[in-house]
Amino acid sequence: MFNSFKKTTKSIVITVLTIALIIIVFPANEAFASSESELVLANGRLEYHTNGRIDSSFTGIAQWDKDRKWYFISCGVYDETFKGLAQATNGKWYYVSKGHIDKNFSGKIVKATNGRWYYVNKGVPTKTFTGKIAQATNGTWYYCTNGRPDTKVSGVIAYCTNGGWYYVTKGKVDKSFTGIAKATNGSQYYVKNGKLDKSFSGKKTYNDVRYTIRNGKVIAPAQTPVCNHNWIWHTHTETVHKSERYLVSDAWDEPIYEVHNFCNNCGLDLDITYGGYTNDAISHLNSCGTGYHTGSVQIGSIHHDAVYDVDEWDEEVTVKDYQYCSKCGKRK
Known about the structure:
The chain has helices spanning 2-25, 270-274, 279-288; strands at residues 37-42, 45-50, 53-54, 60-63, 70-74, 77-78, 83-87, 93-97, 100-101, 108-111, 117-121, 124-125, 132-135, 141-145, 148-149, 156-160, 165-169, 172-173, 179-183, 188-192, 195-196, 202-206, 209-214, 217-218, 231-249, 252-263, 292-304, 307-325. By secondary structure, the chain is mainly β. The strands form eight sheets. Strands 13, 14, 15, 16, 17, 18, 19, 20 and 21 form a nine-stranded mixed β-sheet that branches. Strands 1-2-3 form a three-stranded antiparallel β-sheet, with no helix packed on it. A hairpin with a 2-residue loop joins strand 8 and strand 9. The longest helix has 24 residues, at 2-25.
C-alpha cells in the first residue's frame, strides 16, 4: 500500500511539473505562435502576421484565407487607399485600386512599389506592349519597349493609345517638334507640334530638303532645293545673379604719439637720452643755461585695412542658343 501511495504521489508531482512547464512556455494570454505568414483580423483591422506577430516589414498583396480575396498590405497593415502596382505573395504583380486587385484597369503606365513604371493591361503588367505610346498615371505620355517606358528612343513617330501618331524625344511625346520624321512602320510623315498632321497635303521643306506630302504622308522622293538662307538667332532669357564688390574706405596707418621733454637750447630729446627729467637731464639743461619744453613724438602706428562692401542683384539676360534659317528651318 505504501508503494502504491508513493507511485501515486510521484505521478501527481510529474503532472503538476508538466502543467507548470506548459504555463511557463505558453502563457495563458498568448496564442500558440504560427510558423507561417498569414492575414489575420487583429486590433480591429486586417494585419499581416509572421510567426504570430504583425510583420511591419511586409508591403505587398496577400490573400486572406477566410474570404479568399486579395488585400494590399502596407507595413503589415491593410491599406485601402493605395493605387498602383504591387507584388503579391504568389510572386506576380497586380494593379491595386482601393486596396484590392483591379483586373478591369487597362491602358495606362503605372508606377510599381519597386519604383519602376509598367504598362498595365487587365490589371497586370504586360511585355507585349512595345513600340507604342501610352499615358502614365502622372499625366506624361511615354514610348514603351517591352511594356516599360524607353527613354533611349528619339526621333521617331509612334502610334498612341489615344488613336494618334506622335513624335518622340527621349521616350516622351515632344510637342515642340515640327518637321519630317520616320514612323515605326517605316514611312515618313509630316509632323506638326509633335503630332502627325493627316490634314496636310502639299510640299514642305525641312533641313534643306523638299518633300511632297499627301494626307500627312511623304509620297515623293525628296528633292534638295536651293535656299538663300536667312540666319536668325534663337534665343532665350535667363535670370542671372550678379554681385559687385566696391571700396568703402582706403587702407591707412594711424600714428601713435608720446609726449617728450626737449632742451630749449639744443633741442635734445631728454626722454630718449636720459630717460626723462632725471638728474642727468637737469645737468644738461644747466650746462646749456636754459630750460625745457614738451612736444609730441611718433613712436609707431596702427595699420587699418581697406573696407569693402558687396552689391547683389538679379538681372535678366538674353542667351543665344543656335542659328536657324527662317526660310527652310535649317540649323547651324
